[in-house]
Design a protein that fits this description.
mainly alpha
Length: 141
C-alpha cells in the first residue's frame, strides 16, 4: 500500500476500534442483562451477548493498537452481517422510529471488509512485533 493508503487505513482502523470498544463498554455499563434479554427477544441465545460485548471490547482494543487487524476485521464482518440479518434488516436501513436501522452496521461492515482485505501496518503493534520496516509500506504499493 502507498503511504497515503496506509494513513487512510490507520484512520479507519482506529476509528472502528474506538467505536467497537465504546459499544462493548456500553453493553456492560447499561447492564449486560438488558442486552441478554434483547438477544433472547429476537431469538438469539442470551449468552451470546457476553461474547459480542467482549469481542467489541477486545477487538476494539486490538484494532486501536494494530494487533491482528485482518483477523479482527474478518470476525467483525461476520458480526456485522449477523447483526444486520438477525436484528436490523426487519426495521430497514434507517430504522422504524423505535429502533435504529442498519446504516451504522453497514458502515462498520464496509470498513471491516476494507481492513480484512488490506490490513493496516502504520503505527501497528504487528509491525513492531514482526519487525516490518517502512520499506514494507512502499513495497506493498
Amino acid at each position: 500500500m502507498t503511504q497515503k493508503n496506509e494513513i487512510g487505513a490507520l484512520i479507519l482502523r482506529v476509528t472502528l476500534g474506538i467505536l467497537f470498544f465504546i459499544h462493548g463498554i456500553v453493553k456492560f455499563q447499561g447492564g449486560i442483562e438488558n442486552t441478554l434479554g434483547w438477544f433472547e427477544s429476537i431469538n438469539i441465545p442470551g449468552f451470546m451477548a457476553y461474547g459480542v460485548a467482549l469481542f467489541e471490547i477486545i477487538g476494539g482494543i486490538a484494532l486501536i493498537i494494530g494487533f491482528a487487524t485482518r483477523l479482527v476485521s474478518v470476525l467483525a464482518v461476520l458480526l456485522m452481517v449477523g447483526a444486520i440479518i438477525t436484528a436490523k434488516l426487519p426495521v430497514g436501513l434507517l430504522g422504524n422510529g423505535q429502533m435504529a436501522g442498519y446504516e451504522l452496521d453497514l458502515a462498520f461492515l464496509a470498513i471491516s471488509v476494507y481492513l480484512a482485505i488490506n490490513g493496516s501496518k502504520l503505527f501497528s503493534l504487528n509491525r513492531v512485533l514482526f519487525n516490518q520496516n517502512s520499506n514494507d509500506l512502499k513495497r506493498d504499493a
